[in-house]
Amino acid sequence: MKLAFSAVLVLLVCLAVNWAFARAFGAASNWESVVISALIIVLIITPVAPSDFAGDAFLALVSAWAMASKYMVATRKRHLFNPAAFGAALVGIGLHRTVSWWVGDYAALLPVIVLGGALMLSRLRYYGMVTAYAVAVLAITIAYGDFSSLAGIERSLSMMAIHSMFGFFGLVMLTEPRTAPVGQWRQIVYGALVGLLFSPYTHIGTYYFTPEVAILCGNLFVFLSNKRRIQRWVEAIA
Amino acid sequence: MLKPHGTHESLAGKLLLSSALVAVSLAYGWWQRENTPRPQIAMTAPMPQAPAPQASVAAPTPSVTASAAPTPATAAALDTSIAALPPNASNSAAAPTAPKSTAAAPPQVSTPAPAAPQAPPQQEAAIYLSPPAQPLPTVPSNDASPPLPAATGAPASGVVPAIPAGTHLLDGDFVSDRHQLEWGDLRVKISVHGGLITGVQILQYPDHRSHSLDLSEMAGPILESEVIKTQHAQVDAVSSATDTSYAFQDVIADVLIKATRE
Predict the structure, then answer these.
(1) Contact between B25 and A94 using a beta-carbon 8 Å cutoff
(2) Stretch A67-78: mean pLDDT, rounded?
(3) Which residues of A184-215 are buried (b: 16+ CB within 10 A; e: fewer)?
(4) What gap in Å lies between CA B196 and CA A195, rounded to an integer?
(5) pTM score, two decimals?
(6) Residue A8 confidence (pLDDT)
(7) Less Cβ around it within 10 Å: N or C end of chain A?
């Protein structure tokens, strides 16, 4: 019930906001992209009940900002940041809430998610990027995890594989084609960077990265490492 | 995704729409800050109702602590004696701050901290021992997280403690070892009076991520009061904080072994 409500709420907000911004910005609206972004938001935010006003508002604002970011934070009609991650990070920081991998509590849903992600990966062919991401995350987990006993290994791996959004994040969010870099080596660096920041052990001072902030940092890296894109952006502003 | 299709761009529309979204977000953020709504907590077990606030009283020792080393067989009688305490026998000094989650407010019928002669047998426990009417102790190491408010109180009336027959809990405060989890460390202190767990405090909880912190703060008070209510480590997991709950069970089981004597 909660899941159905959340899905409908997110989808309606995404479609409405995307339609409005597309008209204002004179851009064509791609409903498939909207649906994919909405699905991602539903999967990374714990479903809420209609009576949970705070949860409803959080979900609606994340959806609205996700769609708005495609137009407001864009260079030459191309968005900079992963929409779902941008919405979740911005609203989450403002409202002191974060995304959660609630799917990890429902083992039956995991094969569907992994299968869907694997199909997307086989279409997009970002193998190097996803491998670099996975290696970075696993390397840090092995370095810092409890691998002193079999139980510790089992726990560390199950936490990473099932109870974190490691798989979904790498297969679905990381591979968003509009924000992914071009070129094999840049893709590998992008994947490794996001994997490094995705790890729960990575922090700067007392700040620990969240998955959505990790991918935003990766998106920023992609933009800043593309001289031609920056040059065209500066020309457009000038 | 954004393909120009020849339609005109409206600068006024862009500004209006963007400003409206910003304004709505700020307005909601301000409203939420003013009203400080709490996240909805789903539990798998009903919580005890918190009694009406009672004034702090310096120290009349409740009858439960006067019982000399009660055995589990006397638990029902102890429950009765706790329930029958006069209102002024309650003492809120052991919980100087209110729990962050109002839904998880534990019963405030509590016993005072143990007297000095009942010092726990372990050096580690002695470090965290707090005298009555003092703020609860904190972990003196590099622990960056403030301890959660302690849950103190008596077991719910009618609850049979699940302590194995033939074993007793030593009176005093006992601190668990530091359990290293994926998202941070977990450390717990329990207070035992009259052979019953009367106080549970999470001294350190997983906080590697803000989400871990949120879950710990949400689940901590519930788990603490559940241990007091059920008197054993196998408390029901809190929804959305399953891993934290399981880890908490392990840590409580660990510290109960420390507090157990044959």
Answers:
(1) yes
(2) 85
(3) eebbbbbbbbbbbbbbbbbeeeeebbbbbbbb
(4) 47
(5) 0.56
(6) 95
(7) C
Q: Contact A83/A37 with Cβ under 8 angstroms?
A: yes
Greatest mean pLDDT among A120-124, B76-80, B232-236, B257-261: A120-124
Q: Which of residues 48-67 of B touch A (CB under 8 A)?
A: none
What DSSP line would sit under A145-208, residue for residue? S--SSHHHHHHHHHHHHTSSSHHHIIIIITT-TTTSPSSHHHHHHHHHHHHHHHSTT-EETTEE
Q: How far apart are the first and last CA of chain B?
A: 70
In this prediction, residues B39-44 reach a mean pLDDT of 40
pLDDT band at B240 (very low <50, low <70, confident <90, very high): low
CB contact under 8 A, A71 and B16: no
Q: What is the mean pLDDT of residues B48-57?
A: 37
Q: How far apart are CA B236 and CA A126, in angstroms?
A: 42
Q: Highest mean pLDDT range out of A98-112, A160-174, B47-61?
A: A160-174
Q: Compute the average pLDDT of residues B35-45.
A: 46
Position A18 scores a pLDDT of 93
Neighboring chain A residues of B4 at a CB cutoff of 8 Å: 26-28, 77
Tell me, yes or no, if A105 comes closer than 8 A to chain B by beta carbon. Answer: yes
Return the ∠ at Cα A106 (arms to B184 and A48), rounded to 5°. 85
DSSP-assigned beta bridge partners for residue A74: A79
Q: What is the pLDDT of residue A156?
A: 76
Q: How many other C-beta atoms are found inside a 10 Å radius of the C-beta of residue B128?
A: 20
Q: How far apart, in whole angstroms, are the C-alpha atoms of residue A36 and residue A173?
A: 10
Contact across the interface for B13 and A24, Cβ inside 8 Å:
yes
B92 vs A164: CA distance, rounded Å: 39
Cα-trace Rg, chain A: 18
